[in-house]
Design brief:
Strand content: under 5%
Radius of gyration: 36 Å
Distance between the termini: 77 Å
Shape: elongated
Structural class: mainly alpha
Amino acid sequence: MPASSAAAAWLIPYSDLTMMKPGLFLILGACSLLAACETGAPEDKAAPVASTAATRKPEAAPVAQRPATPEPNRQEVVLDTPFVGLLECDQIAEKYKACLETKVSGVSRTSLVHSLDATLKRWHEVQNRGGDAQTLLAECQKAKVYAQKILSPYGCQI
């Protein structure tokens, strides 16, 4: 770079300036906003600072608050399929449903409600095909293992 242009190296040619107008205006606007934020009233550093220790009232001791035990927001789950009537299976379905009502929300909740409903339909199909209680119980145990896997991230125990 020649010595004469070194002094004016910060100048930008007009053709380059037109391409940089939006960015340049943003920078200039930000600088003007920062400059406008000053209060304009300088502090008087020679003025003595009044002590607030003598004029301040003593603070009251903080009241001990007991930890709030939040009530779970229970949103009722409505199933299309009733429980099957076998105690062990109904207990699994009831725990699954209670978990959905208290700990799962949003799209996950909707998906898991459909999953529970499909499981109940499968259990009814086993009953309708003439399956005995042992066959139905085996199906319920499989569903319990699956439910524990998918509901454990929500803090539910089946």
